[in-house]
Amino acid sequence: MENVQIDTAGLTFDKVWLMFQETKEMFKETDKKFQDTDKKFQDTDKKFQDTDKKFQDTDKKLKKLEGLFTSQWGKLIESLVEGDLVKILNQKGIKVNNTQERVKGFRSGRQFEFDIIAENGEEIVVVEVKTTLSNTDVKEFLEELNYFKEVLPRYKENKVFGAVAYLRIDGNCDRFAERKGLFVIRATGNSASIINSDNFIPKAF
For position 78, what pLDDT does the model report? Predict the structure, then answer.
């Protein structure tokens, strides 16, 4: 290792002490710059966190607004369908005379909710209302119909039919619903109509 030769000529204690103090001040300045830089990073990080929180708050508000809109829109479609339901079912030979909306509760370990129930004391039509109807909605509703009498035993002696009502559909799920024995009701404008084929025979559940 090469020896470093330090010229100590002319050095005095006062000079060395002065050099030490100057070096110490340089370190202080450097440390202060590092601290300032770190503070800037912390401030930037806080700004990012604040911005992220604002985005999260905005996202929550948008989801809440979307949920409110979907809920209110769903209720509007339900009211539209319910208003015409007795008439259009009577036209198909199902002589119901009164309706109930939002029948819900908990029984036999199941939480249940049925959008509309139309009845006449003997026949029951349970209606699932969707803004946009999909095959998944139809399958889930069929499962609910299978335990309808279990959760609402007051209807156990009645003949129960099912119906799906919608404003829009995904694919051909209306035809799928008909093949499964369900009435298919389309909401259009200010009215609702049953669009099953003329030879349709509803399935009793």
Answer: 83
Assess contact for 159 and 123: CB atoms under 8 A.
yes
Angle at 186 between CA 174 and CA 139, to 5 degrees: 35
CATH class of 80-194: alpha beta
Contact between 152 and 174 (Cβ < 8 Å): no
- Per-domain boundaries in the chain: 80-194
How do residues 127-178 score in pLDDT, each as one tens digit? 999 999 999 999 999 999 999 999 999 999 999 999 999 999 999 999 999 9
Would strands 123-133 and 159-169 be described as parallel, antiparallel, or unpaired? parallel
Structure tokens at 184: 């298919």
Question: Shortest CA distance to 73 belongs to which of 132, 157, 17?
Answer: 132
pLDDT tens, residue by residue, 164-197: 999 999 999 999 999 999 999 998 867 899 999 9
Read off the tokens for 144: 């609910």
Measured distance CA(99)–CA(118) in Å, rounded: 4
What is the rounded distance in angstroms from the CA atom of residue 77 to the CA atom of residue 175? 21
